[in-house]
Every structure is written in structure tokens, then in C-alpha cells.
Amino acid sequence: MNPVQGPCPVTRFRRTRRTAALRDLVQENTLTVKDMIWPVFIRDGQDIEEPVPSMPGVSRLSLDRVLRAGEEAATLGIPAICLFPYTDPELRTETCEEAWNPENLTNRAIRALKREVPEVAVMTDIALDPYNINGHDGLVKDGVILNDESVEALVKMALAQADAGADILGPSDMMDGRIGAMRAALEGAGHKDVAILSYAAKYASAFYGPFRDAVGASGRLVGDKKTYQMNPANADEAIRLVARDLAEGADMVMVKPGMPYLDICRRVKDAFGAPTFAYQVSGEYAMIKAAAQNGWVDGDKAMVESLMAFKRAGCDGVLTYFAPALARALA
Ligand code: PBG
Predict the structure, then answer these.
(1) Cross-referenced SMART domains, in alphabetical order (predicted)?
(2) Residue-wise pLDDT tens digits, 64-80
(3) How far is the CA of 204 from the centre of ligand 1 (A)?
(4) Within a domain: residue 16?
(5) Is 137 close to ligand 1, i.e. is its CB under 6 Å away?
(6) Is 278 a pocket residue for ligand 1 (Cβ < 6 Å)?
(7) Please, are residues 145 and 136 in contact by the beta-carbon 8 Å criterion?
(8) What DSSP element (H or E) covers 238?
(9) Cα separation of 150 and 176, whole Å?
């Protein structure tokens, strides 16, 4: 008996791991900055980069700085930026009308980016939480998150973002029927080429904590989001959600969070073959950063390994706060 495996021929997997050249030859997946979407937090004002304490290296940017981020994306080869607004507290109301104000922060940022760096795709987030007095993604009445009324509001928000020139709309609200309603409204308004990347399988997760700090929703959220975001115990339901959103007109779908849900990414990709994205969310970013700052892991290596895992799990792309750092690490 040879020591490696039963009968001949002898299988020695270490032959193809012996040198870097051989390892490169047999490498199955490739990490490239071309698959990254860079989430960016925006705020009002001028010349402001306001650090988010729970996300080391991430800041809320005033519009002039967002344009610089857009130029940086273009230089680094990052194909898309996703905008998340920190809304002034006075503009947060129960009815959320700031969400579809054509002049709101996000819509101004979309127009400025498309004017200055048209080659970078602009993605948006569609949910009411940055505008809602109670931090929820939908309209709330007597403690209940209203589905159909919320969808009407979200459609107005989608149309305002499409009017401003967004390339990709990202509904993250998890109301039922929103993709179909948005797609019909977009077609009706002549926005036939605006893509929808649906947050189709979005879980009610503890890993969104730092994001809620960044958009100023942490202290506000009344209760939790379990009546609309998914139960982390479920997997078959994710497949049914993706099927529904694709049927309603989504062009691309997302699994969120990322690292704890790689099984879902693989199943979604295998089941549909549609463009599949994962969101490596704020808490995942914060964990890697915190461990690196303590010297407990090598931050760059952990970043690259975590992002490669998404490719291996079948994802076509990843939303990650590491996008510019990855571009630099790979350069
Ligand atoms: C808003 C939204 C959230 C995230 C993206 N869009 C937070 C939430 O659902 O509470 C989280 C992203 C992250 O944690 O990085 N609907």
C-alpha cells in the first residue's frame, strides 16, 4: 500500500501544489476587482469625511468627496458604486416622503456621479429606513409594517432614482411584490434599461449593526425586522424568493449577508444560473478589521480569502467595503 491512497496509480495532490506556477495552473477561481461593487455612505455638506467608528477605514462622505470616490473607483477599475445616505434627522418622518424627493441626497449624488464619472455604474438601495422615523424599511402603522402601502412608496423612490440616472436599483426592503411593481412602473415611465439587482434572500441578521450606525438608524429602530427579513434557519425559502424575484423582473439577485450564507449563494447559482451577488455586510467587514487591528489575523490575507470564498460559492460579484483595498492588494 502506498501511504497516500490505496491501489496504484498513486494520487499525490501535492504534485500540483509544489510550486507557485503549478498552483496557478490548477487554480479554479479568480478574484478580480471587476466583480466588486463598492458601497459608499453619503452625507450633506462640503469637504467632510466623517469616520464610522464601527467600520475602521470607512467614512460618510459629503458630495464633493463622493465624486472623488467615483474617480477613485474609475482609476482602480471598480465597476460600480452603491450609495447609502445618512439622512438629516429632521428629514426623517413617519411618511418617509424624503425617500422620493428628486433633490434628496442620493438623487443629487447619482446625478453628480453620472455627470462626472459616467463610466462607473451607480447602484442605489431602495428601502425606507434612512428616511423613516422608526428605522424600518417599510411604512409602519400601529406597530405593523404595511406591505402594499410600502410597495407604493418604494416604487416612487425607484422612479426618482431612475430619473436621476441610476444604472442599477437595489430593492433591499423585502416587501412582497415590490420587484414586479417597480419593473412595471419603470417600463411605464420609459426606463426600460434600468437594471434591478434584487436583495432577494436577505436575512434578519445581527451582522448589519455597523451599517445601522453609519446611516444613523441604530438608535431609532423600534423592534426588529423579522416580519419581513428572512429567518436565518431557512434555505429552501431563499430559492423560492429568488424564483419569485426573477419572475417579477429582477435582472440580478443577491444573498445577504455573505460569509455565513455561502450555502445559499451556491444553491441560488446552481438553481437559476442568474447573475448572483453576495453582500459582505458591515459586520463581516468590522470583524475582519477588528481582528486585524488586534494583530490576530493578517487583514489583507483574510480579506482576499473571504472574497475568494464568494467566487468559489458561485457568486458573480460581491458588494464589499473592501473594494478599494482589494483593488490595491491585487494591483
Ligand atoms: C437597508 C439596508 C441594510 C443594509 C443594506 N441595506 C440594513 C438593514 O436591513 O437593516 C445592511 C448592509 C450592511 O450591513 O453592510 N434596508
Answers:
(1) ALAD
(2) 999 999 999 999 999 99
(3) 10
(4) no
(5) yes
(6) no
(7) yes
(8) helix 236-248
(9) 10
Residue 286 C-alpha cell reads as 468590522
218 pLDDT band (50/70/90 cuts)?
confident
The reply to whether ligand 1 has any atom less than 6 angstroms from the CB of 124 is: no
Q: Which domain holds residue 238?
A: 33-330
The Å distance, Cα 212 to ligand 1 centre, comes to 7
CA of 247 to the centre of ligand 1 (A): 24
Residues serving a catalytic function are 202, 256
Dump pLDDT digits (tens) for 256-285.
999 999 999 999 999 999 999 999 999 999
| In a domain? residue 218 | yes
**Number of domains the chain is built from:** 1
Any atom of ligand 1 within 6 Å of the Cβ of 315: no
Question: Looking at residue 210, what is its pLDDT?
Answer: 96
CATH number of domain containing 122: 3.20.20.70
CA-nearest residue for atom 2, ligand 1, is 172
Cα 131 to Cα 92: distance, rounded to the nearest angstrom: 4
How many whole angstroms from 78 Cα to the centroid of ligand 1?
21
- Amino acid identity of 112? A
Ligand 1 near 284 CB (within 6 A): no
| ipTM exceeding 0.85, yes/no | yes
Compute how many other C-beta atoms are within 10 angstroms of the C-beta atom of residue 172.
Answer: 22
Q: Looking at ligand 1, which atom is closest to the CA of residue 229?
A: 9
DSSP state of 286: H
Strand, helix or coil for residue 217: coil
